[in-house]
Structures are given as structure tokens and as C-alpha cells.
Amino acid sequence: MAIIDAWLGYQRVRRRIPGLSVGVVHGDAPVFARGYGYADEAARRRASETTGYRIASISKTFTATAVMQLAERGAVRLDERVERYVPWIRSGNGPAAPFTVRQLMSHTAGVERDGTPHWVTDRFPTRDELRTRARNGLAVLAPLERWKYSNVGYAVLGEVVAAASGQAFDDYVRAHIVAPLGLRQTGFAITPGVLKTLAAGYGREYPGRRRETFANPDANAFRPAAGLVSTAADLCAYMSAHFPGSGRLLADLSKREMQQPQGLPTDDGQYGLGFAIWPLDGASIVGHGGGFQGFSTAIGMDMDRRIGVTVLTNVIDMHGKPLLLGAFHTIHQCLKRIERRPGRPSRRTALRRYVGRYTARWLDLDVVLIGDRLFAYRPDNERPLQDASELETIGPDRFKIVDGPGGGNVGETVVFETDRAGAVRGLRWSASPMRRERSVLA
Fold it and tell me: Given a cut of 60, is residue 310 above it in pLDDT?
């Protein structure tokens, strides 16, 4: 996790993200959790793994989980028309046909995306206003015509949950997902207690202008689509419950169905029932991104390896997904190299003195240990180990670059420079001298 830790810290500064919280879970065990920067810059409140964030559309995964729980009980049928559960719904005029619960869950119902300008006005529609709008029809395309993302569709799914369960949507999620998993800092209500730990949400950065700080509006009828507040620690526990074999939330068959592509390609992969499926390194990452006024978030799970990652930021112009996929790529690359060549403890101890960040005029390099080999990568890359250079010992403090990008220095020599006490002070990367920064990796 040291590589991810140092890389994320670098990325936060480089991308000028006010605050960032990250969590990694393996099976049932949290293996890494940390905050970077400030949850509130004005108050100088540091971000941590227990800082609250508006997790936005990650809320959709909770809503879809609730629907699947009701389907397991026989209270909801996924391929039933939605109006069976909410009779006030209409599918619209023109070519649009009645849509199903499954189509709403997979964003294939053809329903309009938002319907009102709440992302600009900070005023989200009430349930009564949603019903009024639905009388004129919500569909703008025929079902299954194409994948079309819809917050309105998930607002309607919240009404399906309420109707099928006999509980208010918020109450159902609290009783059947939040409480059983012990998610103590996850909920919909923006109460004074929540505001104490909630990060401040910041707007886009303009030259010569300070970032706007946003208010925290109630998502009202859009709570099922984007209303939850949560933390990195809670989301790790939530992802762990979604791993097959966990025995929590849902039967494994339901989990597999949620994670199964529904056939229509999205802009960057596939979509299941409440979860996106993103291709990465020959595997699939199952997760969801989110964007709210002042927040950008993402969760992702490698189901085969039972690894979950969450990245939460408190700024509107930084998508959490690139950082999430960069973290997963790093994990995959480390596992691949370790499986290929397990580390020898004695060799790791001897090489550890070289680990650190080195800087020069043109670039920064992080030197890291993976197994019992040294690698160097640029921490400004979105996927840091994609073009990493592998170093092989050829003498005291001397290494050869035996693998790396062709546009770099593969085949050339790296010499680490030490002081009289033997402490590493810098290196010479081929012909280029670099000084050692305060260690962020050792």
C-alpha cells in the first residue's frame, strides 16, 4: 500500500484537490485507510478515513441492493412493469413503451436524466413534485433503445422500494443495509451531527478566483439516486458485504445478477443492476462513480480477488474514477510481479535503503520495492506502474535499467549517491542527477 499512499498524495497536490479520503479492503479486512489534505480548508480540518462525503450516485448501488433484497423475498419482480408498484407512473407519449424494474435499474428504460435543474439551483424535487412530473411521462426513448443514464429512474426505484416494503425508502435502507452492516456514518439526513464530520464541497478552479464553497441541499426525492453521505471506512465495510461468499446483504446469485452486464454498452464499459462494470488489466472492476455539488467519488471491486477500493474527494472538477482505476492498476501490477518473483526478505532489507522519491528539473521519480526488485515510476502518471522501469543490481549502489519504456533509459545505468555515513542522498539516472526528497515511501 506504500506505493498507492505516496502516489495518491502526489496526485492530490498535482491536481489541486482540497481533500481526499481512500480506503482499501481485502475480503473482510480493511488493509488501508487514509485522508489527504483538508476536509475544510477554512477551518483547517484534516481529511481522514472517517470524514463524511456526499457520495452521490454510489447511492444507486444501495437502492439497487434494496430492490434485489425485495426480489429475493418475492415482493418485487424485476421484469414486472413499474406501474404495478407505483400506479401513478406513466411511460410517456410517442414511441416509448411501459418500462420494467430491471430496465430502470440498468438505465435502459429510456427515462429522462434529471428533469429539473436541481444540480444548478440546489433545490431537488419533492416526492409530490416527482409524481406530478410523472403524470406527463418520464420516458424520452423506447426501452432498450440504448443505454441512457437516469437519476429520475432511480428516484422512481426508491418509490418502488417504499411501495413493495411498506416502509419509507430511507427507513428501509437504514433497517436492511446500513444497520446490519454497522455503517455508523452513512445516511441520508443532513443533520447538525452529520455536518460536523462532512467535508466542505468545493467548486471548479478558475484562474484568479477562489473555489466556490457549496451548500448541502437535501436530495429529497432524489435520495435513492444521489442522496447518501458516507465515509471511506463505511464504504469498505459495504463493499466487503458485496463480495461473493460474505453471507451478507444478498444471496450470491443476486450479487452475480447485479454484476452481470445487461447487454447495452455504456460510454466506458457495461452496466449491470445498480453497478457499472469497467474493464481493467484483463479483469473487470464492479463499482460506481458519483458527482454532487462539491464532491466526486467512486467505489470499485475486483470480485475475483475480493479487493475493494473507494476514493472520495471534496471537489467538483476531479472525477474519482481515474484515481480509483489507478489504484487498482497498481494493485494488479504489484500482485503480478510478486507472483512471478516472490521476494526474499534478506534482499528486500538490503534494497530498502534506496526506496524514496527523487526529483530533478524535468520530472519526479518514485523508487519502490515490489517483491525483491526495485522499480522506478513517475508519480504524475494516472497509472503509475504502467511504464515503470525495473532495476537490476550490477554492483554496490549501481543498477541497470533492464525493463521500461523505450522512450526512457532502458539498458542504461542508475547510480545511487551516498554520504560518508552511507545514507542515500540522490541518484544519477543515466546522465541525469536527481536529489532525494523527504521519504514518502520508506
Answer: yes
